[in-house]
Amino acid sequence: MTNSNQVNSSGLPTAIPEAPSGLGTMPRGEPRPAGEDVCILHDAQGRRITYVRVSLTDRCNFRCRYCMPTEGIHKLAHREMLSLEELAALIRVLVAELGIEKVRITGGEPLIRRGVIDFITAIAAIPGLRDLSMTTNAYYLAGMAEDLYAAGIHRLNISLDTLQPERFAHITLVDGLAQVLQGIERARQIGFSPIKLNTVITRENLDEAAAIVRFAIARNLQPRFIELMPSHEECATQFVSADELRSHLAREFHLEPGPRSNEVTTPSNETTTGSNETTTGSNEATPRLSDATGAAECHAAARLYRLDGGEHCCGFIAPMTHPFCHLCNRIRVRGDGHMLPCLSEDVYYDLKPYIRPELRDRELITYLREVLAVSKGHTPAARRIQGMWRIGG
Ligand code: SAM
Ligand code: SF4
């Protein structure tokens, strides 16, 4: 159950911010000047929060069985949703004033939110933002990929659970595999890099895991398997652990453990370490395993395995059996302005009063720091995940 606004603002003097005046007025992006002082967010465990996932909408054109409840969804009222201008203003505070360096746009399905391209253009221009990416089901990607790339998203996570059209329709309730594959192909042509394929592994698609790996590496995409987080009854019988999946894949591939996914190098030998990751316009190959052994602090959820001793790797994200809470550096914001410090903690904090009817950035900053300082969270995800389609994964 949503439990918003659990901690009150301390009622500091109201700041006098300029009200957001529209997406088009955002300044062009530039690096944050060296040494510039930004407030850094920490949570109750002392971890530095540098990453936010923003869900633009709770609407989706798919109905994935593991994501949405079988009995249907209760949609958030339009009036509850933040406008894209309000979301952009929030992200601007998070990046420019609180040290957030990485933003992932998600949903629901982010590409169905009207105005998403202008929104991305505005976000990409925020000084200090080092990493902007999107998670999408790719159904509308073929027609939007070019504009998306030009707007400033160069890194994509694409959800793909099967390569079989009928199974795809069974999982998503939409006969859309061909369109999704077109979207992936278009994104490759345009030069998005990396493109990661997210596969939620279940009893239903375990037999396709090797085929998905082969599909991905043949196209220079990075396959990543995600453990099913339970959202309803059916999940109990569908769950496959990352360890079982690895044993299964080991019949076809030699899997050699590597570092977590932000300790990788690109083929140009440029080290990419999470927030320092850079994006280029080239159709650069998938990030590959470096020789790093994981000594550096890292925040990536995926554990990478080298495939057959070669350059390609496969990621395993195991929130259920190998929680990575100690590495977490992220918060999540839903489209209605509710902030979730942790997927394991069913507690939301409503940021909307600090954004609407006008942005009160000083109070927003104080509130965020307060609630993160008391957030318990980060226990293994034993409970059911509620509303993944709103939170955005
Ligand atoms: N609609 C977009 C998509 O599917 O890529 C973005 C939102 S979706 C909620 C983000 C990610 O969450 C997807 O990769 C999806 O597979 C994953 N996801 C949804 N429900 C899940 C669950 N119960 N367990 C694990 N992953 C889940
Ligand atoms: Fe599927 Fe993503 Fe839509 Fe959930 S939000 S139903 S995972 S496409």
Structure characterization notes:
There is one protein chain. The protein is an alpha/beta fold and 393 residues long. It has a single domain, classed as TIM Barrel, CATH 3.20.20. The protein is built from ten helices and 17 strands. The strands form three sheets. Strands 9-13-14-8-7-6-5-4-3-15-16-17 form a twelve-stranded mixed β-sheet, with helices on one face. A hairpin with a 5-residue loop joins strand 1 and strand 2. The site of iron/sulfur cluster has 12 residues, from loops.
The order of strands across the largest sheet is 9-13-14-8-7-6-5-4-3-15-16-17
Cα separation of the termini: 17 Å
Order of helices and strands: EEEHEHEHEHHEHEHHEEEEEEEEEHH
Provide the residue-averaged pLDDT: 82
C-alpha Rg (nearest Å): 20 Å
- CATH architecture descriptor: Alpha-Beta Barrel
User: Major sheet: size, sense and barrel closure?
Assistant: 12 strands, mixed
SS-based class: alpha/beta
**What is the number of beta strands?**
17
Query: What name is given to the CATH topology?
Result: TIM Barrel
The helix count comes to 10
Helicity range: 10-25%
